[in-house]
Amino acid sequence: MSDCSSPQFDAPLLARLQAIFDRHAGPDSRWSKEQTEAFFHHIQGDHPPPQQNETDEDLDFDRFVLYMTSPAAEALGPAPAAQSDMSWPLNSYFVSSSHNTYLEGNQLTSDSTTEAYKKVLLRGCRCIEIDVWDGGERFTSAVNEHADQLVESSTENDIKEVAGEKVGFRLRTLMKVGGWVSDNLLNEKGKRDMAEIQQNWSRAIASEPRVLHGHTLTKEISFRDVCKTIKEYGFQTSDLPIIVSLEVHCSPEQQEMMVAIMEEIWEGHLLPPVELDAMEKIAPSPAELRNKILVKVKYVPPKEKRGEDDDVTEDTESLEGIEGLQPEKGAPAKEAKPPKIIGMLSRLGVFTRGVSFKAMEQAEAKMPHHIFSLSEGMVDKTHQQSAWRFFQHNKQYLMRSYPAGTRVDSSNLDPAGHWRKGIQFVALNWQTWDRGMMMNDALFDGSGGYVLKPDGYRGPKPGVSAPEPEVPGRDLNHFSVHVLAVQNLPLPPDARESNSMRPYLTMTLSVEPHPLETVKREPYVARTKTEQGVHPDFSQEVLSFDDIDGVTPELSFVVFQVMDDRPGIDPVTAAACLRLDRMKTGYRFIRLRDGQGQASDGIILVKIEKRMT
User: Fold this and answer.
1) For residue 452, what is the enclosing H or E element?
2) What pLDDT, in 10s, does the model give residues 81-109?
3) Of 503, 587, 485, which is closest to residue 13 (Cα–Cα)?
């Protein structure tokens, strides 16, 4: 196979390969050039067939096995070249996105870590989330720069190398006592000495924002450390832009600190602030934003554009003065509130200006460079109310969706239905490897985190006057997978012996309906009978589906899950997910991941048949 040395096939799988070869071989147990070409053309659907040794026209069994262990025989084919075109406006792409990126587990008690950001960025995620709250006092880097002075002027003797650590109760008490003594007991010289000491400590201690899931028991991390991690790992696997979605719960003072930290650490990666009325209405392309960090944050109009009132809510409820937006006639006036987001932070949002969603009819729905964020429940509700308006909006503007708050176990929504509605940023819990994450991996495999939407899902491209194509819909006349044999199934932790496993295979075809349909289409599911052991032979069982209409192959997914039929919880032992348009026909190998989503030596030998019109 492609990423490991030539495998040693077990007897059932090797026997299956021999049977395939013998079925097409001549009396001399070899394939002539004509037989070889017929196999690759009619069975494998490879055009042209894989390169062969020009001096040897015949193919023997050993060379057939060599082909079957090469990348050419894998079920996953290359992504269409058109999907790697990065010249369209930003809203024309699906973007690999994460929800509550800082968490390593569930939504209530798990740890927040910078390692979580590192993992998703190295796996290709391009939209990450940071929930920011007011932080406590911490030592800054100045504590190491002025360590000698600080030690001399305090009773602490372990100041060295503590930058970033919290200020302890003992030291805070000593500083407060010192201030009281200075004010009430010291003479003028003593007060001057104490003032110098306090000035040293003020340089060494600052209150910086922290990152955590608010109102839960999740552990916190430093906002500064998160920014450093993004800088270090954000562009190692892809130079396409990163979108940082900020959920801000900080005081104005801490928001100023956030801006200072981002401008310091992300220098050269941030876009310069631009007023909305000075910008082009169409966003730049990912190619034009390479190595850039786009900040998604609540939009607050500049003070001079807010009309008579100087205040405006963070959700921009006061529309007067926003470029081209006015409240609907007869709409009752709302009492303005002070903005929760300060102007200097809001201005960092250039092409990703967050606006709270109320309805598709709200005036901000036509504001250039805005982005709505909707929970999965609100996505379904809004789509039910106005599917056409919802889909048309997402061809022109950005939208982000995220899992419902009730998913405290960090499970994931079905992203395919959200992509089918044109949503660019479908945020998932990357720490949970379930069917949702399998689909995300399948959509973005080899893409750098950006996939161009299919025809009919995109708005206009600057300089292109071609008529807008229709949303594609094809009929899947026949789709079948012949399951021959499986090798090297990962052994579940509670299976002491390989023969104790009782595996069976399920195949789930997720084919979402047309984006203007409001009735959800349930997945198609088939399964094999139960076998025994980690090298089961499934006797070429056929799992098939026929006559399915309205299929968009680029947004349809086939999920394979190997289950363990022993009495108990029926766990997923291994799994794989492939995009329907990238599944090659013929005899192929499918690679399996274990139950935690890690790469394994497990493989399935299948024969795939697919006919579409």
Assistant:
1) strand 450-452
2) 888 899 999 999 999 999 999 998 888 88
3) 485
